[in-house]
Known about the structure:
Blueprint: E1 4-14, H1 16-31, E2 38-44, E3 48-51, H2 57-60, H3 63-68, E4 72-75, E5 83-85, E6 88-96, H4 106-123, E7 129-130, H5 136-143, E8 159-161, E9 164-174, E10 177-185, H6 190-195, H7 202-215, H8 229-244, E11 246-250, H9 255-269, H10 272-275
Parallel strand pairs: 1-2, 1-11, 3-4
Antiparallel strand pairs: 2-6, 3-5, 6-10, 7-8, 8-9, 9-10
Helix pairs in contact: 1-9, 4-8
Amino acid sequence: MTKETWAFLDTGNQSASYNMAVDEALLDWHSKGEIPPVVRFYGWEPAALSIGYFQKAEKEVNFEALNKYDLGFVRRPTGGRGVLHEHELTYSVIVNEDHPEMPTGVTEAYRVISEGVLQGFKALGLNAEFAIPRTEEEKASLKNPRSSVCFDAPSWYELVVEGRKVAGSAQTRQKGVILQHGSILLDIDEEKLFSLFHYPSERVKERMKQAFRSKAVAINALRNQRVTLDEARIAFKKGFEQGLNIVLEPLKLTESQNKQIAALQKERYENDEWNFRR
């Protein structure tokens, strides 16, 4: 059977506002039929904190710590909780909701797209599997998260190794298109991560930090030999091709497309009205 060809774009390390602008632009172009479905890889320079669309920025984020570490800041168009983007490979997948391989349900579509991430972990020799909340308590915690931190607990069909979350993803649907993006952690700076949010007390913060250690883990804490970003890129590109049964062909952005990205970056993702809207 002939494999479908999707576009592949690796934009390297870029600012937080640029990264979100590219994802939104790709979604827009795909909705108009200007580009095929896309798998994109990217990194963050400087390192940055992104918060979910529904989070309350000034209530939840410690901007004093954010400035201390010279971190970027942006609100994502997707839901979910706060993510420190530092030692990671970030991916996004853009595909029409009515694509023949995409289930109509959000959770099931999430599982199909995340198969690419799963196969990437396997290409690195890690025995990852999908998290499926089983108890009523686990299911309830997804509706009422106790922490502002994304990797606090796995959601439906996120990836875990030995019961601990190794990748966090979020999804939105706009203009008939699914945008799913997520973080694949190579390393975690827990102290820095937990300094970026407000807590009712130091005791609560410490308790959250201890709980986090039992629920989240980075790739390089699981392997004897460290994985570089380049090795991760190779493994996860292969993983998406295998997991989604596709062939990835490089996408080259035109001058016009780059101008559209720059406009989105300035008008939305560098705009306080967007980033502090809640």
